[in-house]
Amino acid sequence: MSAYLEPAEGGGRFRVSGELVFATVPALDLQSRQLFTGASPLHIDLGGVTHADSAGVALLIEWAARAREAGRQVEFRGVPAQMCELVRVSGLAEVLPLAASE
Questions:
Q1: Following DSSP, what letter does each residue of 24-88 receive, concatenated?
Q2: Which residues contact 2 (CB under 8 A, 6 or more apart)?
Q3: Between the N and C ends of the chain, which has fewer C-beta atoms within 10 Å?
Q4: How many CB atoms lie within 10 A of CB 83?
């Protein structure tokens, strides 16, 4: 079980793949700390996420809060339907800037 964060095309763009679950989120959280420096908007593609639980949603909330504290905009793209549903049933749809998978 693993999760990866890697730069994608262009500045401020990143791709997440693997499983966003209780076992993988802490390491991914540590790896992501450098994302929130700089001024450009962040675009985080979650299209490679194969499975997520509430820890994955909590990570998105943390990332959104860090971006806000750093004065940066963040958008989560390619969000798997499973994560969108977790966000919806948790009442967080107004808090997280999600763009669902096409």
A1: THHHHHHHGGGGGSSSSPEEEEEEEEEEE-HHHHHHHHHHHHHHHHTT--EEEEEE-HHHHHHHH
A2: 18, 19, 24
A3: C
A4: 24
Tens of pLDDT, residue by residue over 25-40, are 999 999 998 888 877 8
pLDDT digits (tens, 9 = 90+) for 50-67: 999 999 999 999 999 999
Residue 89, H or E segment: helix 81-89
The CATH class for the domain spanning 3-32+40-100 reads alpha beta
Tokens of 3: 């999760």
Q: Residue 35 corresponds to which tokens in the numbers above?
A: 């994302």
List the structure tokens of 24.
């993988």
